[in-house]
């Protein structure tokens, strides 16, 4: 029986950082579904699509693959170009589209099938893997998330103000939680973790305790 760990939460709550560390600690796979929406969002924005038919046709042309933790778009490895605030907005914009969600959810389920895996996103515990063995809903205040993301971006040399980052987070929170299709919300059986006052290591430890209890086989393998 595989151990599927779903980590959902709003922009900048720490999903990617925590999921990567957790997967490394447990020696299992990791899937960043946000990266998939960022890749598709940037691709559709550049394609200047204006209706569902054009979106459907563009997705038919798209070759999105995943290998050894990297994404490849039409054979080219995807890099940090998808990590800008603007691409986060494109991702959130097209994530409201049912055709986009159907396309990516199918791919995510294929990747996660029968795997011990950590999958992070907005709708993993509610839509993509509703029977996941472990479900975490990771939150933090908007200000804490903006402060963390601002520090991360400025350390990367990205020219951005704290106010711009806070506004991007507020916009994405609103779009992600108010959309009709697969809105960001806590699954009934998910465990809420507010990381505002906890370090990355403390959050990982909290989740490992849950994994130890819910995924005994995986833990014994350790
Ligand atoms: N508990 C924490 N304490 C301090 N910093 C944190 C914590 N968790 C994450 N961070 C930092 O916050 C920043 C954002 O984290 P991360 O990119 O993992 O969030 P995310 O939820 O995946 O964001 P997005 O949904 O926008 O991709 C990173 O620089 C990360 O190192
Ligand atoms: N499972 C997912 C993952 C992501 N999205 C959308 C909403 C986010 O604002 C955007 C970028 O994700 P991030 O890189 O910030 O995790 O993609 C979604 O709707 N469902």
Automatic annotation (TrEMBL):
Keyword Transferase (UniProt): yes
Keyword annotations: ATP-binding, Cytoplasm, Kinase, Nucleotide-binding, Transferase
Annotated positions binding ATP: 9-17
InterPro entries with a match to the protein in the record: Cytidylate_kin, Cytidylate_kinase_dom, P-loop_NTPase
Leading EC class: transferase
Catalysed conversion reaction: CMP + ATP = CDP + ADP; dCMP + ATP = dCDP + ADP
GO MF, any single term: kinase activity
Cited Pfam families: Cytidylate_kin (PF02224)
Location in the cell: Cytoplasm
Main location (coarse class): cytoplasm
Endpoints of the signal sequence: none
Segments forming domain Cytidylate kinase: 5-212
Entry EC number(s): 2.7.4.25
Highest rank taxon of the organism: Bacteria
Family the entry assigns: Belongs to the cytidylate kinase family. Type 1 subfamily.
HAMAP family: Cytidyl_kinase_type1
Protein name stated in the entry: Cytidylate kinase
Source organism of this protein record: Thermosipho affectus
Primary gene name: cmk
């Amino acid at each position: 029986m595989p151990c599927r760990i779903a980590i959902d939460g709003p922009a900048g709550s720490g999903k990617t950082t925590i999921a990567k560390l957790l997967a490394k600690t447990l020696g299992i796979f990791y899937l960043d579904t946000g990266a998939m929406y960022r890749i598709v969002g940037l691709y559709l924005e550049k394609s200047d699509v204006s209706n569902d038919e054009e979106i459907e046709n563009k997705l038919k042309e798209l070759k999105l693959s995943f290998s050894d933790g990297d994404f490849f778009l039409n054979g080219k490895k995807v890099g940090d170009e998808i990590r800008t605030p603007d691409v986060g907005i494109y991702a959130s914009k097209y994530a409201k589209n049912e055709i986009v969600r159907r396309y990516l959810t199918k791919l995510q389920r294929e990747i996660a099938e029968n795997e011990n895996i950590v999958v992070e996103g907005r709708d993993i515990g509610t839509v993509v893997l509703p029977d996941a063995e472990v479900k975490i809903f990771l939150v933090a205040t908007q200000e804490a998330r903006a402060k963390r993301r601002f520090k991360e971006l400025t350390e990367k040399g990205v020219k951005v103000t704290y106010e711009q980052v806070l506004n991007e987070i507020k916009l994405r929170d609103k779009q992600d939680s108010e959309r009709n299709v697969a809105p960001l919300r806590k699954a009934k059986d998910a465990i809420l973790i507010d990381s505002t006052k906890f370090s990355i290591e403390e959050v990982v430890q909290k989740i490992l305790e849950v994994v130890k209890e819910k995924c005994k086989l995986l833990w014994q393998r350790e």
